[in-house]
# Entry
Amino acid sequence: MNEIRTVGIAGCGTMGAGIAIVAARAGFRTRIHDTRAEAIEKARTQTEAFLRKSVERGKLAPGKLPEVMAAWTGTTKLEDLADCDIVIEAVFEDLAVKHELFAQLDAVCPAHTIFASNTSTISITEIAGGSGRADRFVGMHFCLPAQLMKLVEMSPGINTTEATFETAWRFCEALGQKPVRTQDSPGFILNYFLIPFNNDAIRLVEQGVAEPADIDLAIKTALGYPMGPLELLDLVGMDTQRLLCEAMHGLTHEPRAACPPLVKRMIAAGHLGKKTGRGFHAYGDTKMFGA
Ligand SMILES: NC(=O)c1ccc[n+]([C@@H]2O[C@H](COP(=O)([O-])OP(=O)(O)OC[C@H]3O[C@@H](n4cnc5c(N)ncnc54)[C@H](O)[C@@H]3O)[C@@H](O)[C@H]2O)c1
# Structure
């Protein structure tokens, strides 16, 4: 078995920052890379704040906080991921961007390094095709917010070896996450349901059927969900939702997966969701993490 000790994460946005917390908290040496130094600084500050809150709430032993931060290293240099046993990619939902990144990573990382993608909608086999190591490539789809949600949808591409998949699966369990196996299929399990469902909620707002707060309240009350679809979309971000819709609709041609015009108008207005302080709901701060 290929033992995983050092974890690389490429992309320090909403998802990458959360996945880095999961890895460092589970005791793995964790290196998180982004091309933007400010993304790394923001994640470092928010990670410390999240861990402090976890200690206050009794979810993390006080002595663990400095240990987790010591395991967490941010970098703008891709070469710093050279000693990683697995690299989880969480950059923009764009095949060309992912291909370019994996081509660079393939030149930097040793042969044993497993590559994983956190993509929500793009085919694992297609991303793997541009990675130079399609046999050592796997889909690992974490849920938002990764530091709180246990589910990871794990999918092999057509060329993924069973040994690679098993190593990644055991790593996922060692992270303290709950892996579920799915085929390489648009939206896997969760987003196959969620993207059209969330778009339906947006269309109710577009049509003036109900206010966002009332739609969220109805769904939470009736279905027992911890968060309404519009609250969830504010966390996901309208920019990411647009990319998810375009990828999912392009693959499936499912009309309900098409990006609602309101999302495009909200992006133009800068109402991306919680990260800009305003989306379907208004926020007092732009913090992304709760404890
Ligand atoms: N937001 C969600 O709800 C969610 C949930 C599960 C999976 N995903 C998937 O995770 C991935 C990331 O989504 P996100 O919401 O975190 O996006 P995001 O926009 O918040 O973050 C993306 C980050 O990647 C960085 N980046 C872009 N190109 C890069 C490169 N070449 N090298 C290094 N860093 C680069 C950006 O600077 C940015 O910080 C996407 O594939 C998305 O589909 C998103």
About this structure: The chain has a mean pLDDT of 95. Residues 15 and 90 are 6 Å apart (CA to CA). The radius of gyration is 19 Å.
